[in-house]
Amino acid sequence: MGGIVAVFLLVFFMPVGTTRFDNAILEGLALLNWYAREHVMLCLVPAFFIAGAIAVFISQNAVMKYLGPAAHKVAAYGVASVSGSILAVCSCTVLPLFGGIYRRGAGLGPAIAFLYSGPAINVLAIVLTAKILGVELGVARAVGAVSFALVIGLIMHWIYRREEQTRAANQRGFAPGTDQGRPLGDTAAFFALQV
Fold it and tell me: Where in the chain are the domains?
């Protein structure tokens, strides 16, 4: 009952009609409009296309070989923690990519390492950090992001190890083997069009 009264009083005494309040609401709506136009259309939609491309063009065997539960741990975490450097993604556009590699069979630890490091070590972020804050901080950002990605990935793997063992047992029938796949030229052309 107290919550209903509080909401009623908030709405009742809201300063609607004052210039400052009305401008704040209009600016908030303008920012939401900009976000929907710029960020969603120019960042999220391409991220969904790239995630779809991962699901279509990168075979499950390739993901399992390099990032799967049976993959060499040092290689899996190493590849996952530095592969974000080639992508210019933010923290929300990396989510579809994370989902794509996780659904293709990547272990939770390497997938989380990719999720954490992707936005932090992309080339644009490192160059801008080094340019604005100095080379030392740019290098510290890159090294720190990779280090934290490894640690966070290992912690998540340890926390969810039982679930990962069950998932790995269910995927044993999809062990890496010979995959005919599609020609390399087709895959390269598709990713070139994405850029």
Answer: 16-172
Structure tokens at 53: 């491309």
- Within a 10 A sphere around the Cβ of 18, how many other Cβ atoms? 10
86-113 pLDDT tens trace: 777 778 888 888 888 888 888 899 999 9
